């Protein structure tokens, strides 16, 4: 091999395998397009590569079966019950970090430091601008009022987002009350629960119902999509509250696995995700609420006005999830 061909061979090797000193492996149930911009920025700043495996279902089971051989360092997912499930499966380790402690308020992280919230979101009501008057719906409890008969659309009651809301209803009242609420809400539905939060707004746009339940950030996604923009424009966001509380909140978050082969680099990524810079990206590209105090919400989110977040403990919501699922099945909500 002469000097020129050996240089070419070296160049080929360098192109094929970028020389990252460190890497982090992430299992994520979050849509790749939502988190990739964050990882790209992190890699650019630190030189640490981030490898993401999109795992839609069964995160806890997969980590449990891989055990100590798991290549995963971090798990990223949405919903407090999913985070709690992963912790309960024994596949996470506590992370003690001054940075995380300073950036993330106590209500958005596990008291045992097993999971950390990175963004929050509210489960709100999308109301028809044409057919629902200002102030006509103000509480979650009111969705059970017969005045809404045939006017409500929602995704399945057994979906995590609705189970979180129902679990919060149990915490605010009790299981019997929540069951009666779910039964009455079901009786008010315009059609069988189906589809996602955005397709309910489409139904409002199409005149099939007048209000729907949905997470806040979907408004941002609809506005940005030419096909869905008219749906978004047919509704306004109403921040309902519980009669004795505020607007129902949930989180997306991160946890470190017990196996974590790249612990140091993984900790760097966790801390960076809680930084001003990353929190601003979450706010701007996903229209989620940053958890770090002082980081601004996006202008779009600001335009929906202010609201009072519910203050019940996220862990209490996770605890009532099995009871919420049971009552949703008992009232045959999705049937
Ligand atoms: Fe979602």
What share of the residues lie within helices? 40-55%
Average per-residue pLDDT, rounded, comes to 93
Given helix and strand content, the structural type is alpha/beta
Outline the biggest β-sheet.
Answer: 10 strands, mixed
What would you say the CATH architecture of the largest domain is?
3-Layer(aba) Sandwich
Overall structural domain count: 2
> Which H/E pattern describes the elements?
HEHEHEHEHEEHHHEHHEEHHEHHH
CATH class bucket of the largest domain: Alpha Beta
C-alpha Rg, in Å? 22 Å
What this model shows, in words?
With 335 residues, this protein is of the alpha/beta class. It has 2 domains: 3-120 and 249-296, D-Maltodextrin-Binding Protein, domain 2, CATH 3.40.190.10; 122-248 and 307-330, D-Maltodextrin-Binding Protein, domain 2 (3-Layer(aba) Sandwich), CATH 3.40.190. 43% of the residues lie in helices and 17% in strands. It contains 15 helices and 10 strands. Helix 2 (32-46) links the parallel strand 1 and strand 2. It is globular, with a radius of gyration of 22 Å. Mean pLDDT is 93; it is low at 1-18. The structure holds fe (iii) ion (FE).
């Amino acid at each position: 091999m002469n000097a020129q061909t050996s240089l070419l061979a070296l160049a080929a090797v360098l192109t094929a395998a970028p020389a990252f000193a460190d890497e982090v492996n992430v299992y994520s149930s979050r849509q790749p397009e939502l988190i990739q911009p964050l990882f790209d920025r992190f890699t650019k700043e630190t030189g640490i590569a981030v490898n993401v495996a999109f795992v839609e279902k069964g995160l806890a089971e997969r980590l449990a079966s891989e055990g100590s051989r798991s290549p995963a360092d971090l798990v990223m997912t949405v919903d407090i019950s999913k985070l709690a499930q992963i912790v309960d499966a024994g596949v996470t380790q506590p992370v003690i970090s001054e940075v995380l402690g300073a950036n993330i308020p106590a209500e958005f992280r596990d008291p045992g430091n097993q999971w950390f919230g990175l963004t929050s979101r509210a489960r709100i009501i999308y109301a028809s601008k044409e057919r629902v008057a200002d102030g006509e719906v103000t509480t979650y409890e009111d969705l059970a009022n017969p005045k809404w008969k045939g006017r409500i659309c929602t995704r399945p009651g057994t979906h995590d987002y609705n189970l979180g809301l129902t679990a919060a209803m149990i915490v605010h009242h009790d299981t019997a009350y929540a069951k009666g609420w779910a039964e009455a809400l079901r009786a008010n539905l315009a059609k069988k629960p189906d589809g996602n939060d955005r397709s309910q707004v489409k139904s409002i746009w199409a005149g099939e119902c007048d209000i729907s339940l949905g997470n806040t950030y979907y408004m941002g996604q609809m506005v940005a999509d030419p096909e869905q923009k008219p749906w978004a424009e047919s509704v306004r966001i109403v921040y309902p509250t519980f009669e004795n509380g505020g607007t129902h909140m949930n989180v997306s978050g991160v946890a470190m696995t017990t196996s974590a082969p790249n612990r140091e680099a993984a900790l760097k990524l966790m801390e960076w995700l809680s930084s001003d810079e990353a929190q601003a990206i979450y706010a701007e590209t996903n229209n989620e609420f940053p958890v770090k105090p002082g980081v601004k919400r996006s202008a779009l989110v600001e335009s929906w006005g202010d609201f009072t977040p519910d203050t019940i403990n996220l862990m209490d919501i996770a605890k009532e999830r099995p009871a919420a699922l049971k009552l949703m099945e008992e009232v045959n909500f999705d049937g």
